[in-house]
Design the sequence.
């Protein structure tokens, strides 16, 4: 594409034709504030905070969507522009509850940040009617508080990009507010709990339900044996909450922090990721050899499961019956491990640290209680763990590194890559290939299923059999694949689906990065790269080589797919309506 | 052949004053008197003089009957249609002269008008394609498809100087050219019939009175820009317009004037109707397209402009009804003929909906350049009740006002813009000295606050805060310095809003502040409403010297605020008074009660 030359303030830059003023300004090293803008999914020019002056134009224009043209002269820092931005912020504040001191996003709020940046000195400058909204806390995973909403519609865009679209603007003018159709509660619509709305919210209008108090209470209860386990992706994202670089591996510090918080055991969900592969690979081979329902689709992502239950209830037979790694971990803790340690499962509290808000919903699902007690008691997001660490006064970046506790800590490279799209597929292929050939194959990398693109397809020859696989992340892509499954044109044997775009590393429970970061840096790529690096450096990279897993099967489960394994590690699904 | 034609207005105004019943009664009488072969009753579109409807014209005499009722029908049939004696008592007074009757076109209301866009309204039966064709209908389309290349059609429209009649005044030919220039597999033509300005109804009248001219014009536009499909986005509140347009499209399809291979030219064009759901913002072109697409009607940022990326992401030309209504005439009679009317930069005519404190309310189509004085004093018949003209509001909630001292301004796009006003879609509301300008500004702003879509922050919150400031001013609660803050916010909303609705919403405030700042200051500083409109700033007072103690005022007071013994002066308790004014009306003879 041709380049055009534009002048921004005093800098002259050459940028591709069609670039926005915002993009051109970045090239010139000039930051223009945004609130509503989300690259590609929310280019609506609604918040008007990015207004700039363009020579020759009467009105100010939105830098986020206004294209540059040859010879254009842009001014981003004039008195008129600064005044305009300040007034916009003051107007927004007049409809905001301004309870910054008690706000969960204080310090990480885009509105607060901009108010400071543009010198808002009177939060009541435009004081007037301020509609009071009720909270929506009807769902297990989050709270919607429209009193903090600035109507940037990033959540609406994120929900639409997920092909879920259960929230949107209702009413009009000053009465406009975000809610579901007919102002129904989220629990009464087909919200899948993915939490993508939360990570895209600039304020605290959308937040996860905070379960840290329950976790602290369990730790403080001497009668409880509190086990924590951390999902594969947490170790490459938690550091961001403490200002560390995106993608920093903080596994060792995380273990120390969890110990210092007072958990009795600090285990690794990676172990049950390996366990999932054992069961899922076995289930797949059984389906292929026994003429079962194909394609088989993974079941690790509870947001995806809920999506399938709402939107494709007639296709549930394609889902693997395996519980997710979080639930398998809890089930093993309260059965095999409890017996081994002489603990009563009723005294064990299992806390999962998850990249995911849907895990809160999953923990409360039926048929997830192998011991007779819920497999998982508390599911915390990465953000909640970071808050607990802050509350406890632990200076995270300065912590030393330590190892997970035994015996539920050994993991393989196959488990680590569960945290990113394609990881489950690659892990399963590693085990299936070895199982079917009866060999320890040296080639463990299935690079065709790697990468952050939404849909990946590949065909592998495993033990003489052509296996067509597909990997989709983000529910819009899931929708595309499921339409094929539905109309019988999906020529796949095995499909991996993750609800969140890019998989767990971009989950709805991950640390919140402001839009300015999300728009210009590829979070998914940066976080996933560390996981692949860890996989590469691990001595064992195949789930079936995990010694702890072997022991669990020997001592307790028998073999993958056994009756006992089904009792403990498998589950069932339900048809859900779109509206109640 | 019929020996007489009876034209009865079937526009919305006359229909709501029972013109349908008149038509029914006429037809029954004609059957009864066995006159159906001799006399034809024609239901036409709007004549424009809505305030004296239902309207009926009997040809060949051209007698213009006004305020006709069903009860008058037997007399009209018996006297006029059978015996040939005009029913003088029903004639519009201006058309009566001692020995003859004047034609409609000689009356003050019509004399200065020039009907181009509305030429067929009130003339033909809008439900008959034959009548439209008889008035040269579809000839312009035939000319385009058989004699002219698309680029030539665009050139004619450009040369005519026609500018968008929806408010913005963008050159129509240029708009067409932009769409024509964009390469695409599919393009669209959209007619904006989501007329929403309070008081404006010219688009409705055109659709009701001459729907085929819109069908024809849109097809011409499609040919010129390379579109094969068109949408008319019309308010659901216009049922008569919708029905007639549906019928027109059906008739045109039956005659091969819409559809495949029109006039054997190989050009295909199809038209669809979409009903608006009552949101004012859907009159904004991008919001309108978003609504047609099936989404919540909200505007989108421009660029990309519709000519590049419009309806369903395809190049689209969108014009307003009145703009389209001019097209067939321009093609038929040439650009020069059209451009011979009007001012240097505003060619042709403009339809205004005349309302407010004026004698003749209704629709008027005047050459561009006519002065406001001519519209008000000559066409409009002046201000009733001996009141004095104060200002005229043009452009509805997006416009501003023209004060008395600028009454000789020739009306065109640029003159209006120059005085901080705008043409808008053509609402013209006349105000006299009994109107408070702060209250007027508040009225229009109240409308835009209600109609803001809520997408962008300046309009959603800014207009609301402006309204709250005005509320304080009219309630006498404003603090010193509030006018500066009001002005600051008004300019901010104007230059920061996403679409035309927000960008123009503060205009009524800014225009009234510009010309009537002293009225604002009186409200703020003296807590007085000079026009005596703002209730919170009023007090009612009984002059004890004049009061005769008749007790009438005390009797009509709905809240018992007036006390006094019979035949002694009465007193108003201002803490109880709700300022309804009933006491003033009751005391009309003695005139002891007054507003202070």
Sequence:
């Amino acid at each position: 594409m041709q380049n055009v030359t534009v002048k921004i303030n005093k800098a002259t830059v050459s940028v591709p034709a069609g670039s926005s003023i915002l993009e051109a300004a970045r090239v010139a090293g000039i930051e223009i504030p945004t609130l509503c803008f989300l690259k590609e999914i929310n280019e609506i020019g609604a918040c008007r905070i990015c207004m700039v002056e363009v020579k020759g134009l009467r009105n100010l224009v939105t830098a986020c969507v206004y294209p540059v043209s040859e010879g254009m002269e842009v001014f981003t820092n004039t008195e008129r522009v600064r005044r305009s931005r300040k007034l916009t912020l003051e107007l927004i504040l007049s409809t905001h509850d301004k309870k910054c001191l008690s706000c969960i996003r204080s310090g990480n709020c885009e509105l607060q940040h901009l108010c400071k940046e543009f010198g808002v000195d009177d939060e009541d400058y435009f004081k007037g009617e301020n509609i009071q909204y009720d909270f929506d806390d009807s769902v297990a995973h989050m709270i919607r508080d429209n009193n903090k909403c600035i109507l940037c519609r990033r959540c609406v865009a994120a929900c639409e990009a997920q092909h879920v679209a259960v929230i949107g603007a209702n009413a009009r003018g000053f009465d406009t507010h975000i809610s579901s159709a007919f102002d129904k509660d989220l629990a009464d619509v087909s919200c899948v709990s993915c939490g993508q709305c939360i990570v895209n919210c600039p304020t605290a209008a959308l937040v996860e339900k905070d379960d840290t108090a329950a976790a602290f209470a369990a730790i403080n209860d001497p009668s409880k044996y509190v086990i924590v386990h951390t999902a594969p992706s947490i170790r490459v994202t938690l550091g961001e909450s403490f200002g560390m670089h995106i993608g920093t591996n903080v596994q060792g510090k995380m273990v120390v922090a969890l110990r210092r918080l007072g958990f009795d055991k600090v285990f690794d969900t990676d172990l049950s990721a390996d366990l999932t592969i054992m069961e899922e690979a076995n289930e797949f081979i059984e389906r292929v050899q026994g003429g079962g329902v194909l394609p088989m689709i993974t079941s690790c992502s509870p947001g995806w499961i809920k999506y399938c239950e709402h939107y494709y209830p007639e296709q549930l037979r394609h889902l693997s019956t395996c519980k997710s790694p979080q639930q398998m971990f809890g089930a093993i803790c309260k059965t095999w491990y409890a017996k081994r340690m002489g603990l009563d499962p009723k005294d064990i509290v299992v806390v999962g640290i998850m990249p995911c808000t849907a895990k809160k919903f999953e923990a409360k699902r039926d048929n997830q209680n192998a011991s007779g007690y819920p497999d998982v008691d508390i599911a915390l997001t990465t953000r909640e763990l970071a808050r607990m660490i802050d509350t406890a006064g632990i200076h995270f970046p300065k912590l030393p590194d330590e190892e997970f506790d035994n015996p539920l800590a050994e993991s393989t490279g196959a488990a680590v890559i569960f945290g990113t799209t394609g990881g489950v597929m690659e892990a399963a292929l590693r085990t299936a290939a070895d199982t079917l050939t009866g060999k320890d194959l040296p080639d463990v990398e299935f690079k065709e299923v790697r990468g952050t693109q939404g849909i990946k397809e590949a065909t592998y020859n495993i033990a003489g059999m052509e296996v067509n696989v597909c990997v989709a992340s983000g529910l819009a892509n899931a929708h595309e694949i499921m339409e094929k499954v539905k109309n019988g044109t999906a020529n796949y044997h095995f499909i991996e689906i993750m609800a969140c775009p890019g998989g767990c590393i971009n989950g709805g429970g991950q640390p919140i990065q402001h839009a300015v970061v999300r728009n210009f840096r590829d979070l998914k790529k940066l976080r996933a790269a560390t996981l692949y690096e860890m996989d590469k450096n691990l001595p064992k990279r195949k789930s079936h080589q995990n010694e702890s897993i072997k022991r669990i099967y020997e001592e307790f489960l028998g073999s993958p797919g056994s009756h006992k394994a089904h009792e403990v590690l498998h589950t069932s699904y339900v048809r859900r309506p779109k509206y109640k | 052949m019929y020996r007489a034609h009876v034209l009865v207005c079937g526009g919305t105004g006359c229909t709501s004053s029972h013109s349908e019943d008149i038509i029914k009664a006429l037809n029954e009488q004609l059957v009864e008197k066995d006159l159906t072969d001799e006399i034809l009753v024609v239901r036409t579109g709007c004549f424009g003089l809505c305030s004296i409807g239902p309207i009926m014209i009997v040809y060949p005499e051209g007698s213009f009957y006004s305020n006709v009722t069903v009860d008058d029908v037997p007399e009209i049939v018996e006297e006029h249609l059978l015996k040939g004696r005009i029913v003088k008592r029903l004639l519009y007074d201006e058309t009566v002269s001692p020995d003859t009757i004047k034609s409609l076109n000689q009356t003050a209301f019509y004399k200065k008008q020039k009907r181009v866009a509305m030429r067929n309204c009130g003339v033909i039966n809008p439900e008959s394609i034959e009548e439209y064709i008889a008035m040269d209908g579809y000839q312009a389309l035939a000319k385009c498809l058989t004699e002219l290349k698309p680029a030539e059609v665009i050139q004619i429209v450009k040369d005519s100087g026609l500018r968008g009649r929806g408010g913005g005044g963008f050159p129509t030919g240029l708009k067409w050219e932009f769409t024509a220039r964009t390469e695409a597999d599919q393009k669209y033509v959209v007619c904006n019939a989501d007329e929403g300005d309070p008081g404006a109804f010219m688009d409705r009248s055109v659709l009701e009175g001459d729907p085929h001219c819109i069908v024809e014009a849109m097809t011409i536009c499609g040919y010129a820009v390379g579109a094969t499909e068109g949408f008319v986005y019309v308010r659901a509140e216009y049922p008569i317009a919708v029905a007639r347009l549906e019928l027109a499209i059906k008739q045109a399809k039956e005659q091969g004037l819409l559809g495949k291979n029109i006039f054997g030219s190989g050009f295909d064009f199809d038209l669809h109707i979409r009903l608006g759901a009552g949101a004012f913002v859907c009159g904004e072109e991008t919001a309108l397209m978003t609504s047609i697409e099936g989404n919540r009607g909200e505007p989108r940022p421009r660029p990309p402009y519709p000519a590049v990326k419009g309806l369903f992401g395809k190049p689209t030309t969108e014009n307003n009804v009145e703009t389209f209504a001019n097209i067939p005439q321009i093609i038929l009679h040439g650009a020069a003929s059209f451009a011979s009317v009007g001012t240097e930069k505003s060619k042709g005519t403009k339809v205004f909906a005349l309302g407010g404190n004026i004698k003749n309310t209704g629709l008027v189509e005047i050459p561009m350049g006519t002065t406001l004085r001519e519209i008000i004093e000559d066409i409009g018949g002046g201000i009733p009740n001996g009141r004095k003209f104060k200002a005229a509001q043009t452009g509805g909630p997006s416009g501003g006002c023209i004060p008395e001292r600028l009454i000789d301004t020739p009306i065109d796009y640029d003159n209006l813009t120059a005085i901080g006003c705008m043409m808008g879609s053509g609402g013209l509301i006349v105000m006299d000295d009994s109107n408070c300008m702060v209250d007027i500004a508040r009225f229009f702003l109240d409308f835009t606050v209600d109609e803001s879509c809520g997408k962008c922050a300046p309009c959603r919150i800014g207009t609301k805060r402006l309204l709250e400031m005005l509320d304080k001013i009219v309630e006498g609660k404003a603090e010193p310095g509030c006018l500066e803050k009001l002005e600051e916010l008004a300019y901010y909303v104007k230059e920061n809003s996403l679409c035309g609705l927000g960008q123009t919403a503060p205009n009524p405030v800014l225009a009234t502040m510009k010309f009537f700042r002293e009225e604002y200051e009186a409200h703020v500083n003296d807590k007085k409403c000079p026009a005596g409109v703002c209730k919170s700033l009023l007090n009612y007072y009984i002059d004890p010297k004049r009061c005769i103690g008749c007790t009438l005022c005390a009797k009509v007071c709905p809240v018992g605020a007036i006390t006094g013994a019979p035949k002694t002066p009465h007193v108003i308790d201002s803490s109880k008074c709700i300022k309804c004014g009933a006491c003033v009306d009751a005391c009309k003879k003695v005139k002891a009660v007054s507003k202070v």
Remarks:
- The mean pLDDT of chain B is 94.
- Chain B touches chain A through 33 residues (CB under 8 Å).
